[in-house]
Every structure is written in structure tokens, then in C-alpha cells.
Write a structure and sequence with these properties.
The complex is a heterotrimer of chains A (324), B (225) and C (669).
Chain A lengths: L1 H34 L9 H11 L3 E3 L4 H20 L15 H21 L3 H32 L4 H9 L7 H17 L18 H4 L5 H26 L16 H28 L8 H23 L3
Helix pairs in contact in A: 1-9, 1-10, 2-9, 3-4, 3-9, 4-5, 5-6, 5-7, 5-11, 7-9, 7-11, 9-10
Chain B lengths: L8 H22 L3 H26 L2 H29 L11 H22 L5 H23 L3 H21 L5 H29 L5 H10 L1
Helix pairs in contact in B: 1-2, 1-5, 1-6, 2-3, 2-6, 3-7, 4-5, 5-6, 6-7
Chain C lengths: L4 H22 L2 H23 L5 E5 L8 E5 L1 H21 L12 H14 L3 H19 L6 H28 L6 H6 L4 H19 L8 H7 L2 H26 L9 H21 L3 H28 L3 H36 L10 H4 L1 H15 L5 H15 L6 H33 L6 H4 L6 H19 L1 H16 L23 H22 L5 E3 L24 H17 L2 E5 L10 E5 L3 H24 L4 H24 L1
Helix pairs in contact in C: 1-2, 1-4, 2-3, 3-4, 3-10, 3-13, 3-19, 3-20, 4-5, 4-10, 5-6, 5-10, 6-8, 6-9, 8-10, 9-10, 9-12, 10-12, 10-13, 11-12, 11-17, 11-22, 12-13, 12-16, 12-17, 13-15, 13-16, 13-19, 13-20, 15-17, 15-19, 16-17, 16-19, 19-20
The chains are: A mainly alpha (324), B mainly alpha (225), C mainly alpha (669).
Amino acid sequence: MSAIASFLTLVLHLALMLAAAPLVLGLTKRIKARMVGRIGPPVMQPWRDLARMVRKQPVVADGTSFVFRAAPFVNLAAIVAAATLVPSFALGMASAPMADLLVIAGLLALGRAALALAAMDTGTAFGGIGASREMMFSVFAEPAFFLVVFTLALLAGTTNLDAVASLITTGALGLRISMALALVATLIVALVECSRIPVDNPATHLELTMVHEAMVLEYSGRYLALIEFASALKLLVWMSLIGVIFAPFGIAPRDGDGANLAPWLWAVGLAAWAIKIGLMSVGLSALETTRAKLRVFRVPEMLGMALLLGLLAAIFLFVSQGFA
Amino acid sequence: MERIVFGTLPYDLAHLLGGVTLLLSFALLSQRRIAATINTYACQAAVLALAACWQGYVQNAPHLYVTGIITFAAKGMIIPVALHRLVRRLKLAGGVDAALGIFPGMALGVAMVALSIMVVLPTTVQSQALTREDLALALSVVMLGLLMMITRKSALTQVIGFMSLENGLILAAVSVDGMPLVVELSVAVLVLVAFVVFGAFFLRLRAQFDSLDVTHLDRVGSAHR
Amino acid sequence: MNGLALPVLALIVAVLIAVGPVVSVMRPKFAGWGSFAMCAIGAVAVMAYLIAGAPPQLLSVPFGLAGQPSVLALDGVSGLFLLVLMMAGTAASAASLDDQGHPLPTAPAFPVFLGGMALTLLAGDAFALVAGFELMSLASFTLVVTNHRDAGVRAAGLLYLGMAGFAALCLIAALALLAAHGMSFAAIRAHPPEGLRAMAVLALVVVGVGSKAGLVPLHIWLPPAHAAAPGHASAMMSGAMTKVALYVIIRLVFDLSGPAQPIWWSLPLLAMGLASAILGALRANIETDVKSILACSTVENVGLITIGLGLAMAARAADLSVLASLALGAALLHICAHAIFKTLLFLSAGAIQHGTGTRMLARLGGLVQRMPITASAMLLGAACLAGLPPSAGFASEWMLFQSVLGAVRLGGIGPQILVCVLAAGLALATALAASAAVRLVGVALLGRPRSQLAATAHEAGPPVRWALLLLALVIVMIGLFPAAVLGLADPALRILTNTSLNTHVGVLTVSPAIRFPGYVPLGVAALLALAAIGIAAVLRARAVAGHRAGPAWDCGFGASPTWLPFGDPLTQYSGGGFAQPLRRVLGGPLLSATTTLDMPQPGDTRPAVYTETAQDPSELYIFAPLANVRATVSGLADRMQFLTVRQILTVMVTALVVFMALVALMEQL
């Protein structure tokens, strides 16, 4: 019974993640437009764009290899795999035993490497510039995120996301300086990973300022649809990750510790997830409308700050936990 | 202080406010622009005021509310507004010139925080967890203020570093039970006095050298010698 | 049956060392075939031995110091390393067969090199260890200077010889300190060193043998030497020889020095490991020669392994035996994975050099079109290098990170903060390695050719392709079943830490804490495969099939003109361009990287010149001062030649007086 329930949860979770990813992107665009006084496109617009792109025949640049054609698949597959592992509205999904935070980070790195290689495969200047900058950002983002993982793992005794989240859900940890510092660090890393302002501008095609868009410049048709969908899903994965670690309110608990999987727990979990994602979209939109894009070489500095905050988070954990 | 135990709301919130104060110290250290530095300082003062009020509630000590209000009014409102006006009057709205790079400065800051923790923790083994950690936080804020005074060339940012150092002292003062009000008042007055003194000092510097860079003072000294 | 493993291996060593060179001189073709056969038999024998549980074996052979016999020994530790060596050796020997009818003049040295490494691993006493280590060093030196007409190769060989001599000096001194009560390892184990003697042993082993493994600060010989050797030889040097050096460190520091050493013994290992990991990975991002990139990444990986060894040592000293075996397991797993994938990468690099005639990134590009098999193998190896799941590199780095995490239990707040820094450094090194891997593949294999050489490249011959296929198969298996490798490493773990990882290793999973689930490589792979199949199915149902070909849009640059047959090379990102952001952010502080631009005035017709320099800090702070000291000393000696008779007499009398004073002083004490 429990196995079936956890499998059902996983299926529902994955379906919701996949369906909601473009909607969250649409919602963010809409809110941003409203904040600057425009009406903005409807929330469904990203889905419509995807459907249209899928119906167009792609143009593949001359001289590219199988890497160029395989990269969108690898990228999306990696991010879908990550989305399978990050809980949204309920803990204890069938994928929970595999949901290691380092594996999630590794899967996101796999997607990034695939896109960077595809960009190099086009043999154009823009592909190269995007790939090189993306890899530079990852060099600084990864240590920062690993230190956050380190802090969480010190609290929970494991890097398994499900175990970390269920520990935090119990409220035994209370409010922690470490968690506040880790949250700031994670937010910075998430902005970089999702190529949002102030790191990258997802709306621009002004070549010299872009990173992610420069990498995918040569894609069209269904390949472009895969990539756009992947970046929307990546945003949702990061939002869910932040939600489940730093604000696990209302999430349906794991089966097994007495609480049976009552439908109302799922309903509460779903509502809480929707509210969290909505609030984060508003926050992201507010940030993007009020901040300007940073110079490329300021980004490592910002990530360096995230790294140091991660370090401080771990240090303060030692202080309060008294590991010594 | 028996009420204040680890894992309860009074403890957690006090701890968290102290942590945010420290975080804002880091934010101060990483700012490039003078206007943003002043705003961050105002934020820090506001958080500090909140921390003081929360301590007033937790310790049941009304005078701490007064401290909080004074802190908020003086450092959260009056001084930042005055500094903004000063910046406009002296046309200083350019970048902040850090003597050290931003990242090395931050890394040094983290090292200083680690050092403060390692100093405070063993020496305060007997005291309660809240006081210990708040003292560690306060010392870290003080050290970061000092660091800011060292790593910035412009006199104005040095003053802000100095006042952020004062914030660390206040944080230490409010987190210890039974600190009399007199001390806070004197500290607040001290800051104001220092502020006035530095204000006059800016004007002189500006008038004489057309810059707020204190390295000019060294040159004066050597010329006289 | 099981007792046969050691005699068989001893026989293989004898054949490789004694018969190999003689036969190869007469029939050069036999060097490759013979090594291939010997390594394949050895691999099977060691595999059977390890599966059977690796009972320790001893064998006395009548070759030793002055009529004494010397001892060969085989146990779980040496068995695991031998397995790795034999597998890599099989592939590299197979690849060496692809010589187009022109055998290398140094071909006879190759079996000796293999035999020397095997002898080092099989050694059961100090003499055999030194003999094997030196055979390995000399044979590999011969292989490095194969193309000695090139001045760069000669310089690399000279540096290598110097460093090998230094390593030998340290190793012999360390063994002399250890073997006070007898040469055999059993005698040394019975009398582990203590106090000052133990410290001296640690310093000598870590510095001397560490230089052989490529640990910072004495790593600078490694990139040029590994780049200079021919493909299969450099594969063995990077893939196997560094592992043999690590084996010597493990044997001398972990095993023979006894378990009762203090916790600070781990500090030099941790510090050197972290420095190697970061510096190696950063240099791998900046080098412009394919093989140098791979060699720098070897420095990085040796650093990661050394961090694992250091953690294991600290944990063992603190009596945290599970943590010790976890960290050592991570190190051993990474040793296996790195040995295989680095051999794979170096063999593909050799194939690239063979197929294009160059190793410089600036002349490569687009090789995936003309050398699909080599390029695919390299892509796989690069995924391991980058530590991407579900590759073998990720499994071991995951375990390593878990053991760093466990290391916070080692001490008070000071050590804990250091562990945090270690974790950040580890993550930085792996991320840098990922960037280096993307750069290597992206510039060398993908995109458009940058020169005629790359445009007319030809695919590697069948022997190399088979070798690559074999290694690719092994590395995929290691990636998907790391638990199986840890099972093979279990005898070694039991010898070195007295604890088995069996309870932490399932058939499919690796887990640091029993209460929690761990890493499930097969599950991750299945998840990725399912996701890819799902995507393909959706696209099949909804999307239009096929695609059109067209020139790259490139923001309107359009197709390149016809008089540029490879496109306009200058608009394609180069290796230097790719490295530029990292060079600017990290290269300045760590490698004292500088760039100068000499831009002529308008109207001036001379070309603008852009130069980049970078210097390894150990070159700057250790080798350059050493060279200065040497120059000063030789200057002094030079001046001594032109002294007057009276001055020479003064010098001699002074020396005599100083000597007598010393003697008097000694007698007083």
C-alpha cells in the first residue's frame, strides 16, 4: 500500500512539475510586466510558444556533430531527473532514496555541461563566449552550493534531501542563523544557475551581455523547445528546492511515521506549494524589475560572497550545535 | 534568564537578529557605492533596534525599548539622512575606493569572524548559550567594523565603519542582562559627537584638498616634517 | 588454485623485465604483443585472487642484496593496485601495437616499465621495493626521451630525471630509517618507527614519493614529462605510475609505520592534496597542449586521492574506523576510476597526435567528424574527469565528499573550520575540473577545424580503437557498479583500517550512514534513460520529424567566405579565449598570470601582439630560488679557482680549524 502510495505521489509530483514549469515562467513574466506598468503576455504563453516551436522544423548549423543534436535531450533529461528527485508537495516519494543533494547538483551540472559542449560545437563566437562564461560561473557556484549542502548535512547527518526536509519539517531545529545565511547563499546560487537578473538576462538577445542565451543561439524548432522547457523546469526545480529546505510549511509528511497519507494532507501540501511558488515568483519579479544586470566579472565576486556565507553558515552551526 | 533556552522562540529570534546584524556588516563590507553603504548601515541600525526591543521584551526590561527607539531614531533615520545630505553637498556620489579588493576583504572578514568565535567560545564556557553566542556575534560585528575602517580609503566610509563598530558594542550591551540605560545613552551620544567631529573634519578636508581621501593627511604630515 | 596468484605474477614480472627487452630488441613487434599477453594474464589472475578474498601470500626469490633472497608479497592492497595496473597495461600495450610498421626505438623499455611497476607493487621487502621503483623510473625516463631530437622533450626528460633521482634518494633514506631491524616488511611492521624517526620517514615519503605521484609543490616535472612521452607510455605514466607512487605512500605511511601515529600526520597529506587539487585543476584550464591538460588534471586527481588518504589517516588516528574506511574507500575507488579513465584519455590524446600530427588546442577542432570513435571515447573520459553523474568520477567524488562531511567529528572548532575550508576547496577543484573537461572536448573535438592538420585527421588504427573500447567498457562498469569495486577493495580496507565497508555497500548503493540511503548510480542512470526515452516519445508524437541543414546563424555573421576553407577561424572561440574568464579571476592570484597587449598606433603597420604568461607558484617560489642558490654556489666555486696560493692555503687552514673545533665540540657533548 505504502509503496503504491509513494509511487502515485511521485507520478503526480512529476506531472505537476512538468505542467507547471512553463506556467511559472509565464507567471513571472506577467508579474514583471505588471510591475513596470504593462499588461504582459498571458500566463499560458510559454506553453503556446513551446507547442508552436515543436511544430517547426529545426535548422541545424552546418558542421555540427551529434553532440549538437543530442545536447538538448541530455540537458532536459538531466533536469527532469533532478525534478523527479526534488520533492514539491509531499515527502516520501518513491524517488526519495535516490534524492541525494549532491546527485541533484551533479545532474544540474550534467545539463549545463551538455549545453556548453553544444555551444562549442556550433563553432561560433557566441557559443564560445556563452559556454566559457557559464563554466566560469559554475566554478564559483558549485563550491557555494556544496557548502550549503555541507551545512544541511551537518544538521541532518546525511545529504539525502528527503531526510533533510523531514528533519526540518519537524521544527526541531527552530530558527537558525546558519539557515538564514545558507538561504542567502542558496538564493544567489539559484539566480546564477537559472540565469536570471542580476547575472544574466533571460529576455535579452543583446549578444555581449548574455550567457545562457548565447549558448543556445543556434537552436530552433523542437530543439529550442526542449531547451526552453528545460530552463523553465530548472527554475521550478530551484524554487521547489528552496521551498522544501527553507520553508517546508504544509508539505505532506512521510508515510510510515504514523501519519497516513490522508487526501487532505496532499491538498494542504499542494496549496502550500502553490503559494510558495507564487510568492517566490513575485519576489523574483520584484528583484528583476529593481536590479540592473551585473558586469560579468562582478558575478564571481557575488558568488564568492555566497561561498563565504556558506562557510559562515557552517561555522555558526558548529557554534550553536557544539559539535566539539 | 532561565526562560531563554536553546531551541525556543526567544532564543532563536534573538540569535537570528544578531545573525542578521552580522550579515548586514558583511553587506556593508561588500558595498561599492556610498549611497548603498549608507542605506545598508541604516538597515543594520534598524535590525539592531529590533534586537534591542526583542531583548527588552524577553528580559522584561523596559529601558531596552528606549535603547531600541533611540538607536532606530538616531542611527536608522537621522544619521543616514544627514550623511545622504553630506554626500550631495560634497558631491561624493562616486564609487567607494576600497584599498583591498572586495573578495579578499570579505574573506578576511570571515577569517575574523572565525577568530572571534574561537576567542569568545572557550572564555565564556560558564555563561548561558544565548549570551555566549550573542557575544561572539557582537565581537564579530566590531571586528568587521574595524576591518571596514582599515580597508576603505574614503573618510566617509571609514566613519560608517566606525559607527557599525558601535552597533556591535550596542549589540553586546543589550544582550547582557541588566545593563543600565545610562551606558546606552552615553554610547549614543558618543556616536553623535563622533559624527559631528567627523563632519567638521570632512568639511576641512574637502575645503583644503578637494577630496575625502585621508592619504592626503599623510602628505601634509610629511611636508611639515 | 589461489596460491598460484603470486607465482604467476612473479613469473610475469620476470618475463617483462628480463625476457621482454631482449625479445623486443630482436623483434620489436613482440614488445607490444608480449606485454599485452602478460598484462591480460596478470589481470585475470589478480581478479581471481581478489574475488577469492585476497589471502596474503609470500614468496622468496633468489635475487637480492649480496646473496640474500628477497621477498615478494601479495595482499589485498597490492592486489587492487596490480589489478588496476594490469588492466591499464593491457589497454596501453594493445594501443602500442598501432605503430604503422615503425616501432619506436624505445619499445624495449615499455615491458621493463610495466615490470618495474608490478615489481614495486609485489615487493615484500625494502630491496625489492627500491629495485622496482627505480626500474620504473629509469624505464619511464627512457620512454619520455623517445623523441629526443626535440629540445623541449630533452628539457622535460632532464627535469624528470632530476626529480626521479630526488624521489629515489628520499625513498631509500626513508626505507633505511624504517628497516632498522630487517629489510622485510614483516620485520618493519614489527618495529614501527617512533618519534623523530617517524617524522623523518613521513617527511621523506610525502615529499619524495609525493613528487613521483605529482603532489604540489614538486609536481612541475609532471606536465612536461607526461606530454613528451609517446601516447601509450604517457597513458601508463599518468594512469598507473602515479598510482604506484600512491601505493608506496600507502604502504610506507599507512601500513609499515603502524596505526599508532598521531593525528597531525594527516595534515601534510591534506594540505598537499588540497593544493594539488586546486592548482592542478586550474592549470588544466589554462594549458594549451592536450596532453599537458590531461597531465595537470592528473595532478588534480592525485590531490583528491591524497585528501582521501589524509582523512582516512586522521580518522584512524582518532579511532573513527568507519570514517577511516569510508575515506580510504573513496581514495581507492578514485584510484581505480582515475587509472582507467586517464589511460583512456591519454590513449585518445595519443590517437589525436597520431591522426593530426599536433597536440596544440589552437590547431585542433572538429575532430568528432573525422575521428568519431576516439572522440566518443574522449567524451566519456571527460565526463568522468568532470565528475558528472552517473560516471565513475562522480561516484568516487561523492564518497570523498561524504567522508569530508564525516570529518567534522574529528576535533574542536578549529579543525572543524578547516574541514569546511577543505570541503569548499574540494568543490572548487571538481568544478574547475568540469570546466577543464568542457574546454578540452569543446575546443579539441567539437566545432570547426582550426588548421589543415585537424581537417585532414584520420581515425586511430584498430588496436587503439579496441583498447579504447575495452577501457570505456571498464569505466562504465565502474561508474554503474562502484559497490563492486569497493567489494574488491574490501581486503585492502580490512588490512589498512581493520574495518570493512560491507555494511555500507549494497549491490547497487554506496552509503556513508547506515540509517540513510546513499548513492544509487544505476538508479540515476535509469532515471536519465527513462527521461530521455520519455522526451523522445513525446517529440515523436507531437513534433515534426527531420531537420534542415543551414549555415550557423551566429547573430548574422553568416557563412564564412569561400577562400577560408575551414570557415573563418578567428571567429571561433579558441582554447585561450575559453580560459580567459577563469584566468582573469583566479589566474592572477594563484598563477601570477599576466596579459600584455601591444597595440600599434593608428597608421602603424606592425601587427598588434597579445601575450599571456602564467607561472606555477612552485616554480616561482621553490625552483627559481633553488636555481639562484645553485648559481651562487657555482659562482663561489668559480671564484675559488682564481685565488692566490696564500688565499687557497687560508681556506684550507680555516676548513681544518673548523673541522677540529667541531670534533672538539662533539667530544665535549
